Amino acid sequence: MTTPSPAERPTDSAIADPLVDRFDRVHRSLRISVTDRCNLRCFYCMPEIGAEFAPRATLLTFEEIRRIADVLASRCGIRDVRLTGGEPLVRKDLPRLVEMLASIDALDDLSLTTNGILLEQFAEPLRRAGLKRLNISIDTLDEVNFQKVSRRSGINQVIRGIDAAIATGFETIKLNTTAVKGVTESEIISLVQFAIERNVQIRFIEFMPLDTDRCWRTENVLSGETIGAMIERAFGPLVPVPPPVASQPATDFRLPGGQSIGLIQSVTKPFCDACDRIRLTADGAIRNCLFSQQEFSIRELLRRGLRDDELVDQFRRAVAAKAAGHGIDDGDFSPPERPMYSIGG
Ligand code: SAM
Ligand code: SF4
To answer: Which of 183, 211, 340 has most ligand 2 atoms within 8 Å of its beta carbon, as the pocket-test mutant?
Structure first.
């Protein structure tokens, strides 16, 4: 199993004033968390009980979110928006936000990451509203394991959600499995088989130190290398596929039957040097990295009449402060104060 070399970056000549950091990384991708609430309690993300949520009045409104996306797309060359959370589908009226974002001409792509629990009901309305691509998280096919991981029930609901999304016909649907040692090994082959049967890509994501319970340890990381070797033993050699864009976090491979799979090796093979992402939390803070210790709240500024050029300046300030890498391997690494569900994964 070898790693393909990334494709060339597209040119930036058409963008008037892109968001470029100290390491020459051009930011084109905006991740927007629409809520920190969730209908599951995955152990690698949330606490089982006592999760703390942002007061509702602090959540950015749909109008505020649309304005930010529009300004960044038209002035700074942000080209894709991904909605996430928490669980984005628990935010009331989400298809209305999707419709508002889909009307921004300068955006090329609009996607969403979901745990799939409410997808059976929302697949059609989301597609109709203009959502192009979906990532659906699925860590197990077994209800007992599902309850161990998510501390809620519902694997059949997730599978029905995946099938409803496939039937609806999005441009791309990808499955995401967060892989944890001692939890995921026994599921890898059946999950790959599940994806093959549905002709969708499955990607395995390494466990990162972003859990509220602080249970992450290096020893709990099930590496992409190990997962790849397990898949090769069951299905045959994995052939590397060059990424369509350098900033893609997954390394893609093809199985002998042609099926595509991805490994997101955020811990063992960080892809920070090609990162083009900037994040907005549900309560209106700009974060330049999942692991950043610093954030730039714009909510109150927005509500006090921040002009468009000042809004861009806030993003520029955040991008300028971006570190070279996440530093998980550094001796003095400490995880960010906000856990995954509160940042927006
Ligand atoms: N609730 C939605 C979901 O689960 O798909 C969207 C938000 S969730 C934070 C986004 C993705 O982050 C999910 O695929 C989830 O499995 C992954 N994730 C959460 N905590 C993680 C961690 N500590 N390490 C790696 N991935 C994690
Ligand atoms: Fe909820 Fe997604 Fe976090 Fe699981 S990973 S607790 S589904 S936000």
So the answer is: 340
